[in-house]
């Protein structure tokens, strides 16, 4: 064949003039003639090839069998035969429009049929002799060998047909067995064989063929997540503390997510379908599980608490992250990135936003942030996911803190210039109501005279500087340090005294027991005045429900002594002259579980109110554009417009009724199921 091809080429060149002129002219005029080279190939095909083609193909099949069985053979011979079939493809007219017809009919089809029969026999033998895993390993190797080999001898136009035929006989026939073996491989975390199985099924089509595997993967991840959270729910390690519960919750979530994200990378080649399955499964088990009952939106609350633990001073590293030897900032960034990873799966994003802003406000007001870098980095990460609107209020909080610092310095400077000496270290923060999730106190506090004079002076300064603004003092969020000396203190405390870190409410109560500070009671004992609950209430302006928790803290810390074991209306309180402690600095401004629960309830109530406003705003925007809509279409458009939370149909109906009452909408007179927008 090689010699004949060379001869045909030489002969064609000898008759080059004939080919260029007479043959070309005849072809242009429609005559059924061809050039010399084509004619010679036709002669080979008709006079020689057609009589020996079956024998030739049998030799090719025998040669390929030897190669597939691992014996030494020259694959170039197969390539030469395949090329000869391609060269013989010109039709009788000499036009090369059907050039591949001979190759496809007389070589490719028999070759594919022979290969399919060979691998069908091998597949049946493998399944009889070994397990499905052995089959997957062997078939993966076989198909890779064929992929590498087929490029060397088949024409490029036929590669897909050949591979599809092998995929059908080796993979598609056993697809159900592959599906049933997928979950056991997930149990074994066998990423290597999972990758082999995925690659085999993907060869048959990355769409519908992989969907059953994706469904199994999604269900498996969801179950693994639910089991992991169930194991840590109700753990004695938490002691009922929300911060510890949050840590266990987020750690369990990240453990499951990181495990299967690793499989997604190692075994499934970051397949978008598997990635979506992982995301859907994470959304399901993170938002509803043993620690987060359906409808309570506890997942965003615990994630906000977890972030607060990361960013607050004194919390320590709740979860090791980052490379060994990494700096504190690098470690913090890694931990925040993990928290943001969980945030991506939170459904009630508005609940997270509300609780996160509350925790942030405390960290800023109490100056408990571990670093401004960490705070800004977290807000930046949230902005990337949820947009500028989501973090706008958080950003304005930092602006208020900067302005407050400048205002505090200016006030102190004016006091020094005005010959008014502030008798203690005084620091205030002026916060705008719109940006901060804080509300004015329900009760009015009667301040000690020492504090009252400074606060009044600052109020006058602020109102003169900003005419028309109203200043509300947030005493429930204010803190103080007070130094107390006890008669029987010994050691360093006898000279230096004890420094108590207290809330402003606690400060007002303790000052009543100071020299000449009792409400007209005088000294009833060497330990100072003895005061009743009613006297303390009258002197501070606080009601009994607010005073009792503070007095319980004082009595538990043995700062005060109560006449009764259980505080009641007839209890009397006196300073404990025998007070002693190993620590000179003592924190009494501890948060109370009752306050935490009440605050969580109030926050969720505020979330519900904000949601109703968001629903009403969305309805108005839609109706303003559309002018008239059916009830069903309005509900669907409202749900699709609101991104921060999943609006319920019931809440949307309430919003529609409210807007009808406010005369933003009206029902159509001709169809009560249709709404009209009222300009």
Characterise this structure:
- By secondary structure, the chain is mainly alpha-helical.
- Helix content is 63%, strand content 5%.
- The chain is built from 25 helices and 9 strands.
- Strands 1-2-6 form a 3-stranded mixed β-sheet.
- A hairpin with a 6-residue loop joins strand 8 (665-667) and strand 9.
- Helix 1 runs antiparallel to helix 3 (36-68), helix 8 (175-188) packs parallel to helix 10 (211-232) and helix 23 (593-626) packs across helix 24.
- It is elongated.
- The model is unreliable at 92-97, 319-326 and 517-524 (pLDDT under 50).
Using brief descriptors, characterize the structure shown.
3-stranded mixed β-sheet, 25 helices, 679 residues, 63% helix, elongated
Strand content: 5-15%
Instruction: Kindly report the spatial arrangement of strands forming the biggest sheet.
Output: 1-2-6
Biggest pleated-sheet summary: 3 strands, mixed
| Global morphology | elongated
Strand runs, count:
9
Which value, in Å, is the CA radius of gyration?
Answer: 41 Å
Summarize the structure.
With 679 residues, this protein is mainly α. It is built from 25 helices and 9 strands. The strands form 3 sheets. It has a 3-stranded mixed β-sheet.
Secondary structure topology:
Layout: H1 2-14, H2 16-28, H3 36-68, H4 75-87, H5 101-129, H6 132-153, H7 159-170, H8 175-188, H9 191-203, H10 211-232, H11 242-266, H12 272-287, H13 298-311, H14 328-343, H15 349-365, H16 372-386, H17 388-417, H18 449-465, E1 479-484, H19 492-496, E2 498-503, H20 504-511, E3 531-532, H21 533-540, H22 544-556, E4 560-562, E5 572-575, E6 585-587, H23 593-626, E7 628-630, H24 631-641, H25 649-661, E8 665-667, E9 674-677
Parallel strand pairs: 2-6
Antiparallel strand pairs: 1-2, 3-5, 4-5, 7-9, 8-9
């Amino acid at each position: 064949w090689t010699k004949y091809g060379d001869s045909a080429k030489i002969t064609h060149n000898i008759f080059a003039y004939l080919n260029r002129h007479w043959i070309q002219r005849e072809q242009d005029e429609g005559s059924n003639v061809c050039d010399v080279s084509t004619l010679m190939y036709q002669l080979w095909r008709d006079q020689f090839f057609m009589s020996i083609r079956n024998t030739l193909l049998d030799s090719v099949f025998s040669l390929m069998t030897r190669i597939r069985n691992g014996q030494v053979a020259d694959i170039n011979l197969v390539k030469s035969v395949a090329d000869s079939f391609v060269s013989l493809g010109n039709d009788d007219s000499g036009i090369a429009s059907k050039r591949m017809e001979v190759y496809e009919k007389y070589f490719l089809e028999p070759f594919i049929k022979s290969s399919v029969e060979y691998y069908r026999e091998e597949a049946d033998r493998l399944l009889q002799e070994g397990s499905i895993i052995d089959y997957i390993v062997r078939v993966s190797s076989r198909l890779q060998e064929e992929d590498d080999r087929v490029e060397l001898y088949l024409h490029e136009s036929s590669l897909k047909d050949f591979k599809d035929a092998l995929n059908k006989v080796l993979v598609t026939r056993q697809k159900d067995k592959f599906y049933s073996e997928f979950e056991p491989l997930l149990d074994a975390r066998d990423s290597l064989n999972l990758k082999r199985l995925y690659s085999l099924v993907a060869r048959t089509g990355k769409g519908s063929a992989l969907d059953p595997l994706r469904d199994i993967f999604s269900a498996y991840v969801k179950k693994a997540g639910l089991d992991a959270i169930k194991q840590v729910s109700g753990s004695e390690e938490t002691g009922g503390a929300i911060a510890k519960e949050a840590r266990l919750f987020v750690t369990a979530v990240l453990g499951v997510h990181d495990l299967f994200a690793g499989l997604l990378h190692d075994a499934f080649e970051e397949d978008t379908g598997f990635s979506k399955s992982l995301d859907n499964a994470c959304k399901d088990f993170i938002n509803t599980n043993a620690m987060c009952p359906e409808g309570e939106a506890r997942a965003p609350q615990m994630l906000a608490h977890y972030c607060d633990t990361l960013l607050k001073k004194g919390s320590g590293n709740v979860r090791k992250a980052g490379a060994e030897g990494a700096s504190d900032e690098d470690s913090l960034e890694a931990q925040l990135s993990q928290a943001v990873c969980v945030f991506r799966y939170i459904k009630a994003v508005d609940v997270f936003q509300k609780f996160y802003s509350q925790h942030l406000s405390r960290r800023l007001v109490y100056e408990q942030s571990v670093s401004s870098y960490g705070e800004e980095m977290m807000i930046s990460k949230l902005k990337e996911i949820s947009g500028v609107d989501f973090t706008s209020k958080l950003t304005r909080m930092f602006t208020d803190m900067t302005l407050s610092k400048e205002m505090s310095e200016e006030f102190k400077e004016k006091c020094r210039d005005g010959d008014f000496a502030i008798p203690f270290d005084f620091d205030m923060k002026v916060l705008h109501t719109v940006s901060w999730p804080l509300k004015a106190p329900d009760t009015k506090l009667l301040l000690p005279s020492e504090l009252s004079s400074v606060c009044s002076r600052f109020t006058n300064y602020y109102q003169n500087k900003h005419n028309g603004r109203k200043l509300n003092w947030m005493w429930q969020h204010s803190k103080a340090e007070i130094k107390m000396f006890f008669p029987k203190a010994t050691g360093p405390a006898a000279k230096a005294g004890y420094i108590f870190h207290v809330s402003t409410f606690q400060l007002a109560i303790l000052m009543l027991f100071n020299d000449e500070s009792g409400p007209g009671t005088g000294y009833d004992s060497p330990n100072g005045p003895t005061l009743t609950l009613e006297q303390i209430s009258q002197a501070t302006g606080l009601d009994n429900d607010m005073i009792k928790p503070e007095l319980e803290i004082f009595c538990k810390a043995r700062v005060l002594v109560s006449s009764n074991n259980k505080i009641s209306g007839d209890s009397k309180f006196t300073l404990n002259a025998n007070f002693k402690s190993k620590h000179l600095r003592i924190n009494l401004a501890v948060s109370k579980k009752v306050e935490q629960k009440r605050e969580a309830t109030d926050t969720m109530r505020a979330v519900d109110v904000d949601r109703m406003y968001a629903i009403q705003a969305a309805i108005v925007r839609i109706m303003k554009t559309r002018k008239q809509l059916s009830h069903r279409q309005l509900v669907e458009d409202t749900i699709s417009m609101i991104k921060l939370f999943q609006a319920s149909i019931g809440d949307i109906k309430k919003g529609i009724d409210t807007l009808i009452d406010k005369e933003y909408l009206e029902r159509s007179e001709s169809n009560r199921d249709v709404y009209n927008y009222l300009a």
